[in-house]
Design goal:
17 strands, 5 helices, single chain, mainly beta
C-alpha cells in the first residue's frame, strides 16, 4: 500500500496489527469514549493521557475494555478490563499535549500481550525522526465500528516533545502507535494524540517517556 493511502486492515491477527487495541472507555461520569492503544508488554497498553484521565469528565476513567486486533464484531484475542492506569503530571495536572501519554494495565490473569506479542520502543534523535517514514494504525470513529485502519507518511516537523505528520486520522485513533519499520524490526517512536490543520501530531518517545514506559512495562509482567 502506498504511503499516504488509507487502508483497512483485513487480517488483524497478523503482526503487528494484532498488538493494536480498540479501547472502549467508561469515564468517571459514566460517559462512553473510544481510543486506540498498543500492547508494549504482556499487560501494558500504551495510549494517550486523555484516554485514561479526562479533565472534563471526572479525572481518572472508571474502566477501559481493551480489545487487541478487534476486527468488526470479532475479538480474536479476547478482551480484558483495565481499571488501573499510569500517566504523568504533565498531563493529569497541566493538561499539556506534550505529555499526553499513559498506560492501561491489564489484570494479572489476562496477559493478552503474551498471545499477540508487541512492538519495541525507540527513543530517536531529532535528525533521525525528521523525514522518517512512520506507520500508524488504529480505530477511527468515522469507519465501521471496530475496524482497524492503517496509514503511513513522513514526519514533517519535530519539536522537543512532539512530531507532526500528514497521516490521515480521525477521533478514536488517539493513543495509536506511530512506528518505524527498519531492518525487519518495528519500533514505536511516538503516540498519536492530535488531529488538526495542516498537520496531525504525536507525543515523541523521548528519553524520559521511554524510561517511564519501560518501568511500567517491567512492573507488570
Amino acid at each position: 500500500v502506498s504511503p499516504g493511502r488509507f487502508a483497512e486492515i483485513r487480517d488483524t491477527t497478523a503482526f503487528p496489527f494484532r498488538t493494536i487495541c480498540k479501547l472502549e472507555i467508561t469515564a468517571a461520569d459514566g460517559s462512553q469514549w473510544g481510543c486506540s492503544g498498543s500492547l508494549i508488554g504482556p499487560r501494558t497498553v500504551l495510549t494517550n493521557g486523555h484516554c485514561v484521565y479526562m479533565h472534563d469528565h471526572g479525572g481518572w476513567v472508571r474502566q477501559i475494555r481493551v480489545i487487541p486486533g478487534k476486527n468488526g464484531p470479532a475479538e480474536p484475542f479476547n478482551a480484558a478490563i483495565s481499571t488501573f492506569f499510569h500517566s504523568v503530571k504533565g498531563w493529569t495536572e497541566s493538561q499539556s499535549s506534550n505529555y499526553d501519554y499513559a498506560v492501561a494495565v491489564l489484570p494479572a490473569n489476562q496477559k493478552l500481550g503474551n498471545a499477540t506479542g508487541w512492538m519495541g520502543l525507540a527513543n530517536l534523535s531529532y535528525f533521525s525522526l525528521l523525514g522518517l517514514n512512520v506507520n500508524n494504525s488504529g480505530y477511527p470513529g468515522d469507519k465501521p465500528y471496530g475496524t482497524q485502519w492503517w496509514n503511513a507518511n513522513n514526519i514533517l516537523a519535530v519539536t522537543d516533545r512532539r512530531v507532526y505528520y500528514r497521516i490521515d486520522t480521525y477521533g478514536g485513533q488517539s493513543g495509536s502507535p506511530d512506528w518505524r519499520f527498519k531492518d525487519g524490526q518495528r519500533h514505536i517512536v511516538a503516540v498519536h494524540n492530535t488531529g488538526g490543520s495542516p498537520f496531525n501530531g504525536g507525543v515523541r518517545i523521548v528519553r524520559p517517556v521511554f524510561d517511564n514506559l519501560v518501568t511500567w512495562k517491567n512492573q507488570y509482567t
